[in-house]
Design a protein that fits this description.
Length: 470
């Protein structure tokens, strides 16, 4: 062990923890630096690794979901984050939601108990020499961010992220609310219906509520995927009810009809005592936040156990500075992962952490870093980061537009060629991408690959014709 190569990983969030585990799995020693709990951030509340600050969901599952493909890719190579998520999951319909504290504890245990990983607590103010994965996250300290900017020769960009309030279940009026998912019979969400008058009263209060006031040197640049509810409301009175307050697919058991608008809550803990408002990320002042939430029917007596908060995120202009291997063009021995690399989303952070850690280990072992195939979701994401238009670049989460399109027509099981619809294409894209990723991981990267379980969804004949490799 003393003669094996060593790399450095900065940050023990989702990206850094995944990077450390991925590199250590290749027999490389890792020095993992984490500044918490020695120095805390405005958003974190513990010193645990991979702490989830915003939502507790790692995205939709299944073969029709882009995040479902990315989850499957990570499962196939034993990714530490998705393994911990699967073991900590909570009921959330077709989403991979986790119990936050259990999830963080599992990741922390896996990292701290790995014999090749040394955890060093305290702030890193400058990028060290040697092979290094920079995964310091959206709240990178000013000193380290300045050094990364110096190293890359680029400007540092910032945008704002917000978390949603969490409510005690016992304070929710279940005589008004009901449990159901959209268009199905699952009981994974709590739904709060609003009439037109109730919605307009809520919207007026939301408009008048006092929000976070930035300092003069702060420029608010929100990412669309985590837009605060008050910012959504600025776009028009109907915008929230066509977004996070959409009533579609929610039959109110009292009327048998969809309400005018609806707020949904998602389970936060394993016991079901804590529920977060879906899509209600907010930076409102706490007193105003409570008043607005309690205007939602069923939440008149809501006990908010954790208020929504807003915090600054930091990221690089990836297409200017990164290759698709996640190496810095200015210094190929430095790799960047997570939000700092220009990704958005927990799962995306973990996936880029896995690739950065894998490639850092390859560098340390004298091998060439690799890029996953374009058909895979991870390959599509990192290729986008390296090649996007650098003008007005903003963080990206995974979506089907990142992978190559299928031919307009496909041969069916009877040999006839026909055009596939969107819902038919996605299972085919899923199988194609997962097969390509597993073949790459096993044959080119030389990793152990285990085909993950196939999602139990009704599949098209074209998807069935492309089974997952076993």
């Amino acid at each position: 062990m003393t003669t094996s190569p060593i790399i450095t990983v900065i940050g023990a969030g989702l990206a850094g923890s995944e990077a450390a585990l991925a590199a250590a799995s290749q027999g490389v020693r890792v020095r993992l630096h984490e500044m918490r709990p020695v120095k805390m951030t405005p958003a974190h509340r513990s010193g645990g690794f991979a702490e989830l600050v915003c939502s507790n969901s790692l995205g939709g599952e299944g073969e029709r979901q882009s995040k479902g493909l990315l989850q499957a890719e990570l499962r196939s190579v034993g990714g530490g984050i998705v393994t911990a998520a699967d073991a900590s999951r909570l009921p959330a319909g077709n989403a991979l939601a986790v119990e936050r504290d259990e999830f963080s504890a599992r990741v922390t245990k896996a990292v701290r108990e790995h014999p090749l990983i040394e955890v060093i607590e305290g702030e890193v103010e400058a990028v060290p020499e040697g092979v290094t994965v920079i995964a310091s996250g959206p709240l990178t300290s000013d000193a380290l961010a300045a050094d990364v900017a110096r190293l890359t020769g680029s400007e540092r960009l910032s945008f704002y992220d917000a978390a949603a309030p969490v409510i005690a279940f016992e304070s929710i009026d279940m005589e008004v609310c009901w449990r159901a998912g959209r268009y199905d019979q699952s009981a994974d969400y709590i739904n709060c219906p609003l009439t037109k008058d109730e919605y307009l009263t809520f919207f007026a209060a939301l408009e008048q509520a006092r929000a976070h006031t930035p300092h003069d040197w702060e420029k608010l640049e929100f990412f669309e995927g985590c837009m605060p509810i008050e910012e959504i409301a600025r776009r028009g009175v109907d915008t929230p009810r066509f977004g996070p307050m959409s009533p579609k697919g929610l039959d109110d058991p009292r009327t048998g009809r969809w309400p005018y608008a609806a707020a949904q809550l998602r389970q936060e803990d394993r016991e079901g005592r804590l529920w977060s408002l879906v899509g209600f990320q907010t930076g409102l002042k706490w007193g105003d936040q409570k008043a607005v939430v309690q205007l939602i029917p069923g939440l008149q007596g809501a006990e908010i156990v954790r208020y929504g908060v807003m915090h600054r995120n930091t990221y690089l202009n990836a297409p200017q500075v990164l290759d698709s291997t996640l190496q810095l063009r200015a210094d190929p021995h430095k790799l960047v992962a997570g939000v700092l690399a220009g990704t958005e989303g927990y799962l995306e952070s973990a996936a880029t952490g896995w690739l950065a850690g894998t490639n850092a280990a390859r560098l340390a072992l004298g091998s060439t870093p690799l890029t996953p195939p374009a058909e895979s979701m991870l390959g599509g994401l990192v290729r986008y980061l390296a090649s996007a238009n650098p003008r007005n670049f903003q963080p990206m989460n995974v979506n089907w537009a990142l992978v190559p399109e299928l031919p307009a027509s496909q041969p069916g099981p009877n040999g006839k060629v026909r055009k596939l619809g969107k819902h038919e294409k996605r299972p085919v894209l899923f199988r194609r991408g997962l097969n390509a990723f597993m073949a790459w991981a096993g044959e080119e990267a030389g990793l152990q690959v285990t085909p993950p379980p196939v999602p139990h969804q009704q599949e098209s004949a074209e998807a069935q014709a492309q089974p997952v490799l076993r």
